[in-house]
Design brief:
The complex is a heterodimer of chains A (113) and B (349).
Chain A (H helix, E strand, L loop, with lengths): L23 H14 L7 H15 L2 H13 L4 H33 L2
Helix pairs in contact in A: 2-3, 2-4
Chain B lengths: L13 H8 L2 H6 L3 H7 L12 E5 L25 H13 L4 E5 L9 H10 L4 E5 L4 H4 L6 H7 L3 E5 L5 H8 L3 H14 L11 E5 L10 H16 L6 E3 L6 H9 L3 H10 L14 E4 L5 E2 L2 H5 L17 H5 L10 H4 L12
Parallel strand pairs in B: 1-2, 1-7, 2-3, 3-4, 4-5, 5-6
Antiparallel strand pairs in B: 7-8
Classes of the chains: A mainly alpha (113), B alpha/beta (349).
């Protein structure tokens, strides 16, 4: 598949705001809210960037991974901090599967003599 | 790591750098800096009152930092003469310029450095800034007493520390620089720099270690203070975040790492018209080791002398003529207007 036919094209991230073309009112509400979400509040901007980085890995959004890697670096996150965030993503995703093992065990035990 | 000049790198020629900055990217895709400022009603930039004379005492340095826009290093032999420094003192005195900002290379390696600082102190210059790379203090026994010398002359010390951890600092500034910087900072703290209740000002400079823009200055300052205190019991006053400009070794890095286009796009996208009022070329004049005048240290490194043919050298310094000049700009200027803006005194907003 050539570069132009890839589903993910890095330059498309810059066009994110253009989604307003098909539905401007909702886009405006989304981007306003998005901007507010990432402002420092009870959490610092850096904490929010690292959380976003972890979630980006959980949902496997390549645009978000690129964007929040850079944002985290800008805000002084070390490589160790960013990798710990990735591990958190893995731990929660893995844990979410594993904890359903309790349901499996409950069922298995109910069906067993 | 060697200087571009020592490596015979094409970019050691300023014309080659300008060819890149004025190249296809800004002919076909991105607006030139001048086009951008014109969109905000400032097609040409004019200076305000002169407040800072920034003197580059020479390009010789004991370090060879990867991001250096000066291309400084131990191989550089350009050093400002005492007669030029004397002339600078006369200019400062005649025009009551409140601040002298000594930079380089390593300004301390100029053989007339101490003489100049003492003279500046003697004639009553309000603020003497020395941009010290810290490791110079430990580089040779003749520099060991620099903290005491700085204290005696009430020097405002400004020093680069790109991160509060070894790996990133050494990646930018060289193996072993972090450990020596910490040692030097402790020596400065011991004589009173950066201490509560002391008038001895010690500020640190953060440059991103890579092709990205600095984050929030206040947040980074808080983090630096917390970590340097906890890990090393080091105090300092302020942290300045300075954007890396696409000049000399940083430009070489951007091109070699295939980051140049993306980085310039980031700078252009982050253009902040509010930063235009505070950019340092509006209140600063830069002097090179040979006595020539520039709008800023960055223009100096691109050999862009001031646009004032009758007053391009300290020997024919004419403040009236210089205050009416138009500031020379090029695409590297986007570095000073990106985001919260950038200057030798940190973010602008």
């Amino acid at each position: 598949m050539s570069k132009d036919q890839s589903y993910y094209v890095p330059k498309d991230l810059k066009k994110f705001s253009q989604i307003s073309e098909f539905e401007p009112k909702l886009a405006e509400k989304f981007f306003d809210w998005y901007g507010e979400v990432f402002k420092a509040g009870a959490l610092s901007e850096r904490e929010k960037s690292l959380i976003a980085l972890a979630v980006a890995h959980a949902v496997q959004c390549p645009y978000c991974i690129d964007a929040y890697t850079e944002e985290s670096m800008k805000k002084g996150a070390s490589e160790a901090m960013m990798m710990e965030a990735v591990h958190i993503s893995g731990a929660i995703r893995g844990g979410a599967s594993m904890v359903h093992g309790v349901q499996m065990m409950n069922k298995a035990k109910k069906l067993s003599m | 790591m060697k200087s571009l000049k020592a490596r015979n790198n094409k970019l050691s020629n300023t014309k080659s750098q300008l060819e890149v900055l004025e190249g296809e990217l800004f002919q076909t895709e991105l607006p030139t800096f001048q086009t951008k400022t014109a969109q905000y009603g400032q097609p040409g930039l004019k200076p305000n009152q002169l407040e800072i004379l920034q003197i580059n005492m020479g390009y010789m340095c004991n370090q060879v930092c990867k991001h250096c826009h000066v291309d400084a290093g131990p191989d550089r032999r350009e050093i400002m003469s005492q007669s030029h420094l004397q002339k600078c003192l006369e200019i400062m005195q005649k025009h009551n310029i409140p601040t002298v900002d000594l930079t380089g290379g390593a300004p301390e390696m100029n053989p007339h450095f101490r003489w100049f600082v003492e003279e500046a102190h003697e004639i009553g210059v309000k603020e003497i800034i020395v941009r010290s790379n810290l490791t110079i203090i430990l580089a040779n026994k003749k520099y060991y007493d620099l903290p005491e010398f700085f204290k005696k002359n009430k020097v405002h010390v400004v020093s680069s520390l790109p991160f509060y951890e070894k790996k990133k600092t050494d990646a930018q500034r060289g193996e072993g620089v972090f450990d020596k910087s910490i040692q030097a900072l402790k020596m400065l703290n011991e004589v009173g720099y950066g201490q509560a209740g002391s008038s001895l000002q010690l500020d640190l400079v953060y440059n991103p270690v890579g092709a990205f823009l600095p984050g929030n200055q206040a947040e980074l300052e808080a983090e630096y203070k917390r970590m340097l205190k906890a890990d090393f019991n080091i105090d300092f006053n302020q942290l300045f975040t300075i954007t890396n400009l696409p000049i000399s070794r940083f430009l070489d890095y951007l091109l070699a790492s295939d980051n140049y286009e993306d980085y310039m796009e980031k700078l252009v996208e982050a253009f902040n018209p509010a930063a235009l009022d505070g950019i340092m070329c509006k209140n600063t004049l830069s002097v090179d080791w040979d006595g020539y005048l520039y709008d800023c240290d960055f223009n100096q490194m691109l050999a862009l002398k001031v646009d004032a043919p009758k007053s391009q050298h300290i020997d024919n310094f004419d403040l009236n003529v210089l205050s009416q000049r138009e500031i020379i700009t090029n695409q590297h200027c986007y570095g000073c207007t990106a985001g919260a803006g950038s200057s030798c005194q940190g973010s602008l907003i």
